[in-house]
Amino acid sequence: MEVTETNQREVKTKTKRSIIDVDIHNYTPLDEIKHYLPRAYRDQIDLWGWRLPGSLYLNGGVKVGQMADSTPPGGGFPGSDLDFMRQQLLDPYHVEYGILTGSDYSCQASPDFDYAAAVSSAINEYTLEHWLAKDSRLKGSVFIPKQDPAQSAKEIHRVGSHPDMVQVIVSSGAEKPYGHRYYHPIYEACVEHNLPFTIHVLMEGVGINGPNTGAGYVSYYPEYRASRPMVMAAHLASFIYEGVFEKFPTLKVVLQEAGAFWLAAYLWKLDEDWKSLRFQTPWVKKLPSEYFRSNVRVSSQPLEPTPNPEMFRQMMKAVYAEETLMYCSDYPHWDFDSPLLALPKLDDELWEKVFYQNAADLYGLPARKSGKGGAD
């Protein structure tokens, strides 16, 4: 009993500081963003529906993978009600800033590039008006039609200078690995507006995007979750070996919602192969792990559990967590990570980095307004 009480006191002490949550899924209802589309697309939707690719796999939880208690009191889909989000997440956990990451990435798998561009713009306008204008703690992500880099750059230039838009976001499902020079116009625009390029798991194997594994499509949702690090790994190697970080040295890339500890062995492998094979890519000047530390950040959810505390500490060191790891809750999804329970006990300096400072540095957010915060 004494151990339990001590741990509870430590948890309360640790969480008296406010935090930054880098992955909050606000719901973007199609019937609402429809009003932001050009008349021609609204008419087409009325006649033939949305024509957007859908998910291939069953998800856990209720209402397509949401927490059972996340439905707003007045009804509606989880993540759709700002007041309820304040009550359930922002206020009790003293979220100083929350990065909204949306709920529907299907336009990024559409073969109709112009339609994808229109839907992306509509999502951005809806987010600005219905979310960012109503709570100064919330920051937004610029949705782009990433399958068309020219139109993507145009959208970044259109809304990327807004002070509440803090990153560009794409699904990990893609036609080409993201290091390919095809995407350079996007990175040029990101650098110009000082916006990180965030890759969020979703849409692998859907629409025009490639399969979710190199061996083809998987059958079940647990397999799909297991394949997420494989897709992120391909994107990360592509960024490094295609020389993106040499061409765009200030570009920051975020790997979101694919876990983190798998990166330890992967970075070891990348470094070892670079030593033996770098004659093929002479433009890669540094060890891959050095590019990772300087240009890549990783969100915590879902962080892989370890068999014991010592292994956890070693894995945190192996992925350079003090520099790269950022807390996220994934609210309101069924695998929500409470800031009270998401990670084992961290020392003060590391806690500060993971739960606040790494994200503040990445997104250009100010220091806490006060030292008070955390869960009651």
Task: Throw out a few tags for this protein.
single chain, 376 residues, alpha/beta, TIM Barrel, eight-stranded parallel beta sheet, 14 helices, 41% helix, 10% strand, disordered N terminus
Word description of this protein:
- By secondary structure, the protein is of the alpha/beta class.
- The protein is built from 14 helices and eight strands.
- It has an eight-stranded parallel beta sheet, sandwiched between helices.
- Strand 3, helix 6 and strand 4 (165-171) form a beta-alpha-beta unit.
- Helix 5 (113-132) runs parallel beside helix 6 and helix 6 (149-159) runs parallel beside helix 7.
- The radius of gyration is 20 Å and the shape is globular.
- Mean pLDDT is 93; it is low at 1-14.
- This is Amidohydrolase.
- It comes from Paenibacillus alginolyticus.
List the helices and strands and how they pair.
Elements: H1 2-14, E1 19-24, H2 30-33, H3 39-48, H4 82-90, E2 95-100, H5 113-132, E3 138-143, H6 149-159, E4 165-171, H7 184-193, E5 197-200, H8 221-241, H9 244-247, E6 253-256, H10 262-277, H11 288-295, E7 296-299, H12 309-318, H13 321-324, E8 325-326, H14 348-363
Parallel strand pairs: 1-2, 2-3, 3-4, 4-5, 5-6, 6-7, 7-8
